[in-house]
Fold:
Amino acid sequence: MNNWVRLHEQDHVVIALQPFAKGDKLTLENGAMLELQDAVPKGHKVLTSVVRKGEHVLKFGYSIGVAKEDLMPGSWVHTHNMGTGLKGFLDYSFEPTAAEQIKAPSLDAGRTFQGFIRENGDVGIRNEIWIINTVGCINKTCEIVARKANARYEGRVDGVYHFAHPFGCSQLGDDLVHTQKLLASLANHPNAAGVLVIGLGCENNQIDAFKRAIGEHSPERVKFLKSQDAEDEIEDALELVEELVGYAERFKREPVPVSKLKLGLKCGGSDGLSGITANPLVGAVSDRLIAAGGTAILTEVPEMFGAETILMSRAADEQVFHKIVHLINDFKQYFIKHDQEIYENPSPGNKDGGISTLEEKSLGCTQKGGHAIVRDVVPYGERITSSGLNLLEAPGNDLVSVTALSAGGAHIVLFTTGRGTPFGGPVPTVKIATNSELAGRKKNWIDFNAGQLLENKSMEMLTAELWEQLISLASGESQTNNERNGFKEIAIFKDGVIL
Structure:
């Protein structure tokens, strides 16, 4: 195995696959020896050709930033000597180069998984009961109900879950609407066979208004309880859960085409290997699902900055192109409204892992979307309606974006990470490590090791392995670590006034 990798023939840098000391020597592709001028951590970048101050540094075949000083071969390239090359708003023009892709016969024509077909035709991969509170004041009430119901109905459904949040009271305008939309989309998720909505009674997010946000629904599947009107809200809630469990038991697993599957695509804390291992692997699985008629959802809009033109070039048509432009520019305006730098550097964890600039992270991040045509762009809190690759409005924050992906309809979220996290969303959250060290050290967090791409596994082999793991997961034959550990949480995006 080589101890470095170059991702594109035009790149000025190679990525270290092991830690190097100052004075170590690398043998490059042409047999030339390169002596390191600095110590370089694993996953970080080593310069292999001269880059002058103000010139762009290339990785992935694209600019990842601008040199702050003259850089010599053998230098460690990071935040101390390279900065972002991104500035302000850009002008974009539609160029219809992403003509309809030629579709090869799918490897998975006729492939099925064992899912639950709901009365409205939606498909779920879990048969759970979800408790959704309209307001944060009753988080503990709902938590008690979920705990008692799980003990009482264990084995009859796949679990009874409550997702705590602090909002719904004193929110105004669009902020309240966004909370209602997000929670309503969760209430409509087909992994929930039954939903109990619990309100308090005096909150802004009143149950009657929330019913309208949910839209048409079966009274057998969605039930409501106003705590202030109940003498014993916990016992009343448990009685309603019992009715929902009885309803859920009508559904049995049956063969469902893989084209019904929806995958959410998410980056956690990245390292220098994210754009080499885990993200391209997820992109390959996304392409495979879309080839079979399925759906993939890409979000984290700020982590598209610097790579947005790649997605724009794959817009299905001019209307979708303009939706992508608005998605990018609206999020830039959101930063400006709060007096924040649009192109803020990556997080401390990202920097420790070898990511130096936002465009470097973005170029790695967008690889999760594979090579498919972008079919639609969907606002925050709303559900996906188009098959194929969709872009969803949400920030990069792990909890907020995974919640948005779940509300959008993702059955499973593929969550790549070079740093590790125990977090899981409302739906099975597959933690995919970028490196084998993390996968070996955090077995109770990590579900799949993409670091094998740098060892003895090819992309084709690992794509097939992850694909089969997802089919098993969707069929209920296995669980993710977040499910086994009971880590199922939500977070709601807030951008408004609270009274």
Summary: The chain is about 30% helix and 20% strand. The mean pLDDT is 93.
